[in-house]
Amino acid sequence: MIDLLRNIAFFIIALSILVAFHEYGHFWVARKCGVIVQRFSIGFGKVLWRRIGKDGCEYVICAIPLGGYVKMLDERVEDVPANQIDGAFNRKPVLARMAIVSAGPIANFIFAIFALALMYFIGVSTVKPVIGEVSPNSIASQINLVSGQQIKSIDGKKVEHWQDVNHAIVGLIGAQSSSVGVGPINSDVVSVKNIDLTEWQFDPQKQSSLNSWGIAPYRPKATLTIAQISKSSAASQLGLLQGDILIAANGDKINDWQSFATLIQQSHGTSIDLVYQRNTQQLTGKLYPQLKQDSQGRDIGFAGIAPYSEQIPASHQITLEYGVFDSVIVGVEKTWDLTLLSFSMIGKLVTGDLSVKNLSGPISIAQGAGQSAAYGLVAFLSFLALISVNLGIFNLLPLPVLDGGHLMYYFIELLTGKPVPEKIQEVGFRIGGALLFMLMSIAIFNDFTRL
User: How remote is the C-alpha of 208 from its chain's centroid?
Assistant: First the structure.
């Protein structure tokens, strides 16, 4: 329940911030172009807060935080007094109208730059992409990647941490070949290996990008000391506590955490005689693993405990921190990379290289907002930047109900010298609305499927 409330709260916070920036883009440019703005709204539905500004604009916050709008004076919508006609949106030159409409998505890209620049100014502490294990008969094993190597580049582009690697691999969906640069940790030596991706099968719904290549990141060795216990789990029912040390299971000494985890997963509901140490006292008890399904739908045993791990070596850690000017440059570069990746994913959805099952809706966004916020400000800023870029791109799609659709009509008007007939626009809005509804339905269905 706490996680649910946190997800909802940060979803509202995230969406309100992004919508406010998007709508303010429209608002600011409209005012600069001399358009009279009548209302600036965050959300829809019942008005929760209202204020009339000195500029005569009504500023409101509404109950349903799933968008917003800027209402401008427009003769197509209402009768306009003769003394205000010059301030009507429809009376402005086509280039001015295009600037007003495009300002919303542009504001989202600007916000992403700001969020990422702030993130890198604060400092991002992460780990280098050091390979832990390589699965047999995988793409990674075919090009002789080995444990302990650091991934330095993918497809000729430098990567500094695992998020870079993940984005790079996802961007290769549909590619026939690529390359990976690897080398020793903290070394400038790089060996570039070419990869044949013609047989690469990657379903983001079932596996991570790294797993699809057969790569497991380096992880510090897990100890046998219990760090976390899930509520109502088999471990909590036994009475295990944080700090207990595992000693033996079914009469055999436990040598490492992985062998114990494998024993639990393969228990198939049968009890396990457990010996563990609490302070100086040795205790025994029966552990009854619960059953749950793994990513392949197989039933596996589950105890509900997690171990403490050894410290990550300093050689594997990296802190990305820049000054004010450099952080802005990095923010621009990362926003550009996210934009290219997002456009690439849209193209692959169209061509069929990427399944529509990968579309995400508000539930997934809410989960991402809550989870990123739980990791701290830096992670939340990264999440905001990603969603802001995607919101900007989504609004640029040439669907008549979106900013991109309006831009499409105005571009035609710019070329032909006359506006698109209203009947044609109306038909376009209906088709665009139907397509948008279909996309949102698929995304929400995918969300519920994942739940």
Answer: 14
